[in-house]
Amino acid sequence: MTEITTSRAERPAKDAVKDESMLKQKAMMAGHYDRLTSATERGEKVCATFVPGNLNELIMCFDFANNLPEVNAIQNGLRKKSGRYVMESEKLGHSEDVCTYVKSDIGMMAMGNLAPNGKPLPSPDVLLLSYTGCFTFMKWFELLREQYQCETIMLHTPYEGDGWVTENMRNYMVKQLKEEVIPKLERVSGVKFDIDRLRENLKRSAVAEDDLVYVLQSAKNKPSPIDAYFGGIYYIGPIFGAFRGTDDAIDYYRTLRAEVQDRLDNGRGPVTPEGDMGEEKYRLVTEGPPNYTSFRDFWKMFYDEGAVVVASSYTKVGGVYDFGFRHDPERPLESLAEYCLGVYTNRSLPQRVDMLVDYVNEYEADGLLINSIKSCNSFSAGQLLIMREVEKRTGKPAAFVESDLVDPRYFSAANIKNRMESYFQMVDQKRAGVKGAAA
To answer: Cys bridge to 104: 6, 35, 40, 82, which one at CB 3.0-4.6 A?
Structure first.
C-alpha cells in the first residue's frame, strides 16, 4: 500500500495549547463583549477610547462600559475578518495608506458592527481621546464623531520631546481632567465623580502592574520562560484595556505570575501554540507591532528556529511599567497624567532608542528585529534610524521585516521567512566572530 503524505504547509494546524491564564483571559474577553453588546438593553452607557493612555480607572468611576476600537480591530484580525472590512472601507473612499485599524473599524461599522460574539456593538455615548502621540487617533475619532454624533472629549497629552516630564506638563493635564474631562463624563453618565472610588481603582491597578512587571522581567533568565512579543500580546491584554483597575485583572496576573514562576522553577521555555518551545537558540528584542491576520504563522517562524523574544517595545504602548511607573492612589489625577505622558507612543525617538538598547543589554539579547508596519506611522517613522543606532551602540546585529496590522494583503510569509533566516545567519556569524576573537 502506498503511504499518502502531506507537506507541513498542507497539514491542518494543531489546536493551540493554552495555559490556565489564557483560558481565563478568553473568558474575561467573552464577558466583556457580552457586557458591551447588552449595554443598551441594560441601560448602561458606553465610552469608546483608545489603548495608549486610556483612563480605564476613571471611566469605571462613571459606570461606563469601555469599548476599545483597536481591540476590536485586533480581534477581527485574529479571526481573519479584518481583510474584508479593510476593503469595504477602501470602497467607501479611505486611502490604502490609512491605518488599517481605522479601516477595519470603519468597514466593520458599515457591515453590521458585529462584536466577536456575533452581536451588534452599541453606539457610544461618549468618545474619550487621551491623545498620546498618534495623530491618527484624532482623525479616527473625527470619523466616529461624524458617525455617532455623540459627545467627544479630548485630553491633550504634551509630547515628551525633550525626554522628560515637567511639572508644567503634569499640571496642564490635571487641569484638563478637573475642568474638562471629569465634568463632561459626569454630565453624560449622570454619575457624580467620587475621587475615593478612583483611588480604589488605582490601588488595584498597581497590584496587577507589579505582577505584570515580574512576568515581563522573567525573560532575563535563560532560558526565558516567556515570549515577550507574541506571548506578551496575551499578557498585556487585560491591563492595557478594559480590565485595569479591576479584581479580575488582579486575579489574572496572579495566575499568570504563578505559571511563569513554575516555568522558571522547572527550567522551561515559553509556551507556544504547539506546546513548550524547544531549545532556546536565539534571544531577540523586537520593535513594532505584530501582524494579526497571520499571527500564529508569524510566531511559528520564530519558535521553529528556537528564537524567543525577551523584550518588546510594542508591549509598552499601553504603559511602560517595567521602567518604574505605577498608578498611585495617593496622587490620583497626577498619576493618570503621568501614565499618559509616559506611554511608548508619546516618547521621543532618542528615548525609544535608549529603551531598546537597554533591553538588548539587560536581557542579553542577540540583536534587534524590527517589524515595520506599512500603515502605522507612529511606529514606522524613524525605524531605520533606530535600527542603525541600536546596532552601533550594542554591537549586535539588527534586521528589518515588513507587514501590516490587520490587512492580510501585506503579509508575505515567504519574504519574511527568507529575511529572518538571513538574520539568524547574521547572528550565527556574529557569534562565531566573537568566539574567534576571544580565542
So the answer is: 82
CA distance 184 to 112: 29
Tell me: pLDDT of 438 over 90: no
Dist. CA 217–CA 196, nearest whole Å: 32
H-helix or E-strand spanning residue 413: helix 413-438
pLDDT of amino acid 10: 38
Selection from 212, 278, 273, 199 nearest residue 240 by Cα: 212
CA distance 47 to 60: 10
The secondary structure of residue 118, as a DSSP letter, is S
User: pLDDT tens digits for 135-149?
Assistant: 888 889 999 999 999
Cβ-contact 246, 206 below 8 angstroms: no
CA 335 to CA 182: how far, in whole Å?
Answer: 15
- Answer whether 24's CB lies under 8 Å from 255's CB: yes
Give the H or E element holding residue 21: helix 20-37
Structural domain total, the chain: 1
| 81 φ/ψ angles, rounded to the nearest 5 degrees | -105, -15
pLDDT on residue 133: 72
Q: Hey, what amino acid is at 103? A: K
Domain-located, residue 96: yes
13 domain-assigned: no
Query: By the 8 A CB rule, do 351 and 365 touch?
Result: no
Type of residue found at 303:
Y
Residue 342 lies in a domain: yes
The model carries a pTM of: 0.92
* Chain centroid, CA 259 distance in Å: 21
Q: Which domain holds residue 280?
A: 20-438
DSSP state letter for 2: P
